[in-house]
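Write out a record, focusing on structure:
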Amino acid sequence: MDEQFVLRVPPSVAERINLLLSENASSSEDKSLDLEFSEDGRTGTFVIGNERFPASLLDLPCVVESYKTYDDNALVKTADIGQMILVRESGEASPDVVEYRHGLTPPMRDARKRRFRREPDLNPELVQRVEKDLVNIMSGGTVENLDILDTSNLVLFLCYNL
């Protein structure tokens, strides 16, 4: 499987890349593309021709699948993409976070906040107590401070006294 990522560039850079990759590449002034990253692996520089643009490696809020076709009929999955390289104009500020909040398309705007389940609020003391009681039950022991509420239908409901 190939390693893939999404490259998001400003519209002016996109036109130059299209011209460079098109059949008229010999007429293009931009003869080279390069992408260099610093030691942190998250920030870098995108070079097209003699011009340099700041770039950042960002995680996407969810995995995106990429496909290709050989016959314009059947699609073949080629990769799961989880990161995006965001190329900015020279004056734009760099993102402060490592995760891009908005995904690739407008429906994915603020996707983590709107679409994914939030982490449950768990009391660590209660979790440790239940874990200890389960270990005791599995080893043949009993549970302390336990009230049995209902034993019908072979279901045992336990209520902890906190």
Q: What stands out?
A: Residues 6-115 form one domain.
